[in-house]
Specification:
Length: 269
């Protein structure tokens, strides 16, 4: 199943103007449960960070979380990086039109060779680590790039079906993943090896969240993979199912999930 090409097509469609891009971000904020969890955690972390914090959005993609953080704290200095040069240029053009270019910068970067030292108060990486084979190198780079007492936040699929892999012979829902997900033990071991302490690991996408994911993302993408004509039907589909997804997202957000297909990690240097 091709997830990335569809995401890229939607991004191309919705990032043609500032208004469309902001609408796209709002749509992602509502649809993607991981965004609910990340933003909740960010609000909590932000209250304990210095007023003029320096933040790294590592693997920024369309710039959704960069934009959100620049709205959360106007005093933060944010650097957003991604290996995709075309996407970085697109994000840079967008931010210039919003008068935030004095505190938000976009740069092309490979996280496996990130050479910065003791710069950031916060590093955020969402849906990135499952795409990188040399994850332990990247964790070490994140550690080195943080100031003392700096915080790393990670959102990534878990090994409990996070890439829609539930059995040994299953294939990932997202072909671009190099691993099917992290276990809590594996993630904690790798972060401690990098030097992190006070590691908090929370499951996201429990029972309610998984149902919401299926209704809001998986099934629509499966339909679009059959034919792009299903784009026409999407508004009617979401009109029916979106209210249920909102309720399920709220349930997942405020539940202590014993299991889940997503993993939210907060680690201190």
């Amino acid at each position: 199943m091709q997830y990335e090409p569809i995401k890229k097509s939607l991004g191309t469609l919705f990032t043609r103007s500032v208004i469309l891009r902001k609408s796209f971000f709002l749509l992602l904020d509502l649809l993607l449960l991981r965004t609910w969890h990340v933003k909740k955690a960010l609000r909590k972390i932000a209250s304990g960070l210095p007023e003029n914090s320096k933040v790294l959005d590592a693997g920024c993609g369309f710039g959704q979380y960069t934009w959100g953080m620049s709205s959360l704290r106007k005093s933060w200095e944010i650097k957003a990086v991604d290996i995709n040069k075309e996407q970085i240029e697109d994000c840079s053009n967008f931010i210039k039109k919003t008068n935030r270019q004095n505190r938000v910068k976009f740069e092309t970067a490979d996280l496996t060779i990130l050479g910065e030292r003791s710069i950031y108060d916060l590093v955020l990486t969402v849906d990135v680590m499952e795409h990188i084979e040399q994850d332990e190198v990247v964790f070490a780079n994140f550690y080195n790039s943080l100031k003392d007492n700096g915080i790393l936040m990670i959102s990534t699929p878990s090994d409990q079906g996070g890439s829609d892999v539930h059995h040994h012979n299953d294939h990932s829902f997202i072909d671009e993943h190099v691993r099917d997900g992290y276990s809590k033990a594996d993630m904690e071991k790798k972060l401690r090896t990098a030097g992190f302490r006070a590691i908090e690991l929370l499951y996201t996408y429990g029972t309610a969240g998984t149902i919401s994911w299926n209704l809001s993302m998986k099934y629509p993408i499966k339909m679009i993979n059959r034919s792009y004509l299903f784009f026409v039907l999407l508004p009617f589909y979401y009109l029916v199912f979106f209210p249920f997804c909102l309720i399920l997202n709220f349930i997942d957000l405020y539940s202590l999930n014993e299991k889940g297909t997503g993993l939210l990690v907060i680690a201190n240097k």
